[in-house]
Amino acid sequence: MRLLHLWLKKGKKIIMEMTLRWFGKEADSVTLEQIRQIPGVTGVVTTLYDTMPGEVWPLERIKEMKAEVEAAGLRVAGIESVNIHDSIKVGAPDRDKYIANYITTLERLGQEGIDVVCYNFMPVFDWTRSDLAKVRPDGSTVLSYDQELVDKINPENLLSSMDSKANGFMLPGWEPERMAKIKELFELYKDVDNEKLFNNLKYFLEAIMPTCEKYNIKMAIHPDDPSWPVFGLPRIMTCKENLLRLVTMVDSPCNGVTLCTGSLGSNMNNDIPDIIRALKGKIHFAHVRNIKHIAPGKFDEAAHLSSDGSLDMYEIMKALYEIGFKGIVRPDHGRMIWGEVAMPGYGLYDRALGVAYLNGILESLRKQL
Length: 369
Ligand code: DNO
Hints:
Layout lengths: L1 H8 L7 E5 L10 H5 L4 E6 L12 H13 L3 E6 L5 H5 L4 H17 L4 E5 L10 E5 L5 E6 H6 L5 H6 L12 H5 L1 H7 L5 H22 L2 E5 L17 H10 L5 E6 H5 L6 H7 L4 E6 L2 E5 L2 E4 L11 H10 L5 E4 L17 H20 L1
Parallel strand pairs: 1-2, 1-12, 2-3, 3-4, 4-7, 7-8, 8-9, 9-12
Antiparallel strand pairs: 5-6, 6-11, 10-11
The structure holds D-mannose.
The site of D-mannose (DNO) has 14 residues, from strand 4.
Protein name: Mannonate dehydratase
Keywords: Iron, Lyase, Manganese
Pfam family, one: UxuA
């Protein structure tokens, strides 16, 4: 692995490391062996999928996960995600206990040399879509979002309304254990507004930063997806101003961002290359994908190629390159193509095409700039 890294850092400029998200052998239809064959991919981002937010991760399990990935010739380039217990997000009296557990997990990851942790601070739900398999003219399917449709959904029935199109796979953040107590969860957040959420995030970050600094673990918050409030719940990681507030409110080199182009790009007012430049030095992880705007509050996901969607992927990669970003990058949600049956957004084929395309842009950037 060390040789690989020396190779990555060789040449005119240090370059970013291409990775793929992997959901573990129990849940993922994509294997580590397949991932290893995608040109340029050297690592995966993964997690312990059977742990619940708030639990301490067993050291043995972390070691096993690492060993399994390394046996396939890859490395664990980061964790996506160590999820945050709702008590921390709402600032409940028992939050310190869950923060202490989080710190223990970070220490164990740090001891194992894992140094990027992606997390989110979205209330109740992780990312949200209104359709998990919208058919496009070429027969591929994509995830899509339509605020008008979402406004008609009763969140308490959400899981059953989406499940039929999820190819039998569970979406991250939509675990049945959580959905079973969804009323309680909404109740917990009833007095939490954007300011409280920001304060609770600050409290959490201040508590964990000494540990992160000790082990050089870069915390990379994921933007909210879509980047506006959903189901009346507050959402704060939505725009340049709020991301800058996050990185400045707790001043540590370990406090940073997962720059997710698709999540931030859901809001047409977000200028992604501009956000990237503003966050120079604070981006620890990049999720790079394209989406196609249809109207405000309505978008389809797309192939990674610029001309297939509304984002300029060349300008995005150029901005990352120009700020000297040398962290981990991954393609993000792909279309479902060639008859693949996989977790929506996370099949092998279109994400592999995404990697090839992003690698092509990077090669041309490296040779030109
Ligand atoms: C969606 C993903 C998110 C992300 C979490 C990070 O495809 O990018 O589920 O992993 O928000 O905690």
